[in-house]
Design goal:
The protein is an alpha+beta fold. It has helices spanning 14-22, 24-33, 45-54, 59-81, 87-107, 109-114, 123-128, 133-152, 154-161, 214-229, 255-273, 297-300, 305-309; strands spanning 11-12, 166-168, 176-179, 182-185, 190-194, 199-206, 236-242, 247-251, 276-278, 283-284. A 5-stranded mixed sheet has the order 2-5-6-7-8, sandwiched between helices. Helix 1 (14-22) packs across helix 2 (24-33), helix 4 crosses helix 5 (87-107) and helix 4 runs parallel beside helix 8 (133-152). The chain binds iron/sulfur cluster. Residues 23, 25-26, 292-293, 298-299, 302, 304-305, 308 line the site of iron/sulfur cluster.
């Protein structure tokens, strides 16, 4: 049975680490003060508000989620039926979801307030009341590009040509591991074992541009596959598929990279522990002790700026 706890369970993920690095106050809102905000009663309205803001979706995030969802569905359907979707179908489905998000955001504000995990609310509309026309035009073009590149990608070509030889890894919701007794969540897009090449293959679809963080993220995925399937790094192939440009980038990792990612994990956990008032219950320190970032450019796209502006 679902148990209501006063504080969240402590866990680690790369996105949690990145949030803390960008702004401790944001980290506090995301990982502590939104806790239980999904409940309809027996919870302070403040936590409901923080939770609602946490659920706001800026266009790049929303777009990425929708594209990832349809890519996952396309691959699963293909593996079951042998029939790939057409470009028109993928565009149609994704546009339908983006339209649904727009309709929720503009016409169902009250429903979203009541049930923020059941309705969409686009961050741009919440804060400015509209979606800039050039942003809409930009994403209209991106939808076509990303699905065109997905269908033509070497990864999807391999899936369609070697379907019988691939063993697909477990679904995303089950991907976690323990490091030093801490639950670590690994939000990996797609991985499989190719019997023809005797390799584990990890693929991360990117709907935005290339970033310096991409390598670190993939190193964590490689560590996960190495630990979970007990295979050497030489047996793991890792790729970024950049769907806007159609570029595919291959990464090679060494033991040194694995040590680096473990070092990041350990250092990051120590930093996170500074915000625990009680290390056993994971009760947080006071909100004021989660410092606001001094790099104010982080605030421009932040879901919680309404709260910080009130201070
Ligand atoms: S608005 Fe700025 S200071 Fe406030 S939580 Fe967001 S990033 Fe941090």
């Amino acid at each position: 049975m679902f148990e209501i706890t006063p504080y969240p369970t402590f866990s680690w993920s790369l996105s949690r680490h990145k949030t803390l690095t960008s702004c401790a106050r944001k980290y506090g809102y995301e990982y502590y003060f939104s806790h239980n905000g999904w409940l309809s009663y027996n919870v302070e309205p403040y936590h409901q508000l923080v939770y609602r803001l946490k659920k706001l979706q800026p266009m790049p995030i929303l777009f990425g989620q929708i594209v990832h969802r349809f890519i996952e569905q396309a691959i699963n359907d293909y593996l079951q039926t042998g029939k790939p979707p057409t470009l028109e179908e993928l565009i149609h489905w994704a546009r339908g979801q983006l339209n649904a998000a727009f309709i929720d955001s503009t016409r169902h504000l009250e429903s979203w307030r009541q049930k923020p995990n059941k309705y969409y609310m686009m961050q741009e509309i919440y804060y400015t009341g509209k979606l800039p026309t050039d942003l809409v035009q930009d994403y209209k073009e991106r939808i076509k590009l990303v699905f065109e590149h997905f269908l033509r990608s070497e990864t999807f070509q391999q899936i369609t040509s070697q379907r019988g030889s691939l063993r697909i890894g477990e679904p995303e919701q089950f991907r976690s591991m323990k490091i030093n007794d801490i639950q670590v969540f690994v939000v990996m897009d797609f991985h499989y074992f190719n019997e023809l090449t005797d390799k584990w293959v990890i693929v991360d679809w990117k709907t935005g541009g290339e970033s310096d963080d991409d390598r670190q993220q993939l190193a964590l995925y490689a560590y996960y596959v190495q630990q979970k399937y007990r295979v050497p790094l030489e047996q793991i192939e890792v790729y970024n598929e950049y769907l806007l440009t159609g570029k595919r980038k291959k990464y090679s990792f060494t033991d040194f990279d694995m040590e680096n990612i473990l070092h990041t994990f350990q250092y990051s956990v120590l930093e996170m522990k500074k915000y625990q008032a009680d290390i056993f219950s994971n009760e947080p320190v006071d909100l004021e002790d989660f410092e606001q970032t001094q790099e104010k450019w982080h605030c421009r796209g932040c879901n919680f700026r309404e709260l910080c502006a009130q201070k």
